[in-house]
Write a structure and sequence with these properties.
With 328 residues, this protein is mostly helical. Helix content is 53%, strand content 5%. The protein is globular.
Length: 328
């Protein structure tokens, strides 16, 4: 919301009215993570409107198309990002129309006018690559180890990790867990296995802002004032871009292929979690719950095992066609 407030601060007389409409819309989102994501996307749209002297409450589809072109050509944003922004802006206008605050939804574009989503998916890591990344995190720092182990062993979204606090730690039937508020405000728990808790305890124990806080009390969430579960050296929440930079730096230290190290992201950790769990025979229902998906179809979409090159029929054909070696 702060980002939207800053953008609106540059507007003149309509700023207060527009700001109230944005604030009311975001306040109605059940999940804080969703509200923050919508705020970032609305900031992009409202900032463009201000720069180009467009009244957001009287915008037309042509304005939306110009904005999307700007994002693609000037900001170099990918199709997936632009499609997400368009969806957020369309949701806002839908809310405005229901409250009789806007005459139309300019974000309802024809199919051929919408951004094309890139077919490439975030890559998943093999078991050997995952082990190498975990080892590199252990050698880097306690914070790096805590972050990477949490992402790979729980499959939580990066926004859920960054939004978690020490008060979200707890126990459930003898298991260490992290209480998570996911998309749509849905609550779930992520099990924290011993390797994760070992790194998390070591990291939290060295943080001066939570010294002496009980981390995993029995039967309830953590006691004491809540602090970000992962934070900067000053105890402030991390930015998701910092997590991506950390993963790419560690991927290079781990010796992962350059093409993979350049593309790895927190989403790759979720893909790795889903792919490895399903490949290990974990029921889709259990993986679906762990990842906070409403549908098992979404969970199966994260499974990269069916796309793995080692499943290519070409390797089976080697036994039929021969190795193809050439004698010299």
């Amino acid at each position: 919301m702060d980002a939207v407030t800053n953008a609106l601060a540059t507007l003149d007389e309509p700023a207060d009215h527009l700001g109230r409409l944005v604030a009311a819309f975001l306040a109605g989102r059940r999940s804080r993570l969703t509200a923050e994501a919508y705020a970032r996307d609305l900031t992009s749209w409202l900032g463009w409107c201000h720069t180009n002297a467009v009244d957001p409450l009287d915008a037309w589809p042509a304005h939306i198309q110009l904005w999307l072109t700007h994002l693609a050509e000037q900001r170099r944003e990918a199709g997936n990002t632009r499609a997400r922004r368009l969806g957020a802006v369309s949701s806002w206008y839908g809310w405005l129309i229901r409250h009789q605050a806007a005459p139309r939804n300019p974000a309802l574009l024809e199919r051929e006018e919408r951004p094309v989503r890139a077919p490439r998916k975030a890559p998943a890591l093999s078991d050997q690559q995952t082990a190498a990344l975990l080892a590199a995190a252990d050698l880097d720092s306690r914070r790096a180890a805590a972050i990477v182990y949490l992402l790979l062993y729980t499959g939580i979204r990066v926004g859920e990790l960054l939004g978690a606090t020490t008060a979200d730690l707890g126990e459930d039937r003898g298991h260490s867990v992290l209480h998570i508020r996911g998309k749509g405000g849905k609550l779930r728990v992520a099990s924290l296995v011993p390797p994760v808790m070992l790194r998390l305890h070591a990291y939290l124990a060295e943080r001066p802002d939570i010294a002496g806080t009980a981390l995993v009390p029995a039967e309830q969430a953590g006691t004491g004032g809540p602090r970000p579960l992962v934070a900067t050296a000053n105890g402030r929440p991390l930015d998701r871009k910092e997590i991506r930079r950390l993963l790419r730096r560690l991927a290079r230290k781990a010796g992962l292929p350059e093409v993979l190290a350049d593309r790895i992201s927190p989403h790759s950790a979720r893909a790795t979690f889903a792919t490895s769990a399903l490949d290990a025979g974990v029921p889709v229902r259990d993986v679906q719950y762990a990842m906070g998906h409403a549908s098992p179809v979404t969970t199966e979409g994260y499974d990269r095992s069916t796309l793995s090159p080692d499943r290519s029929p070409a390797y089976r054909l080697l036994t039929r066609f021969g190795s193809g070696t050439v004698e010299t």
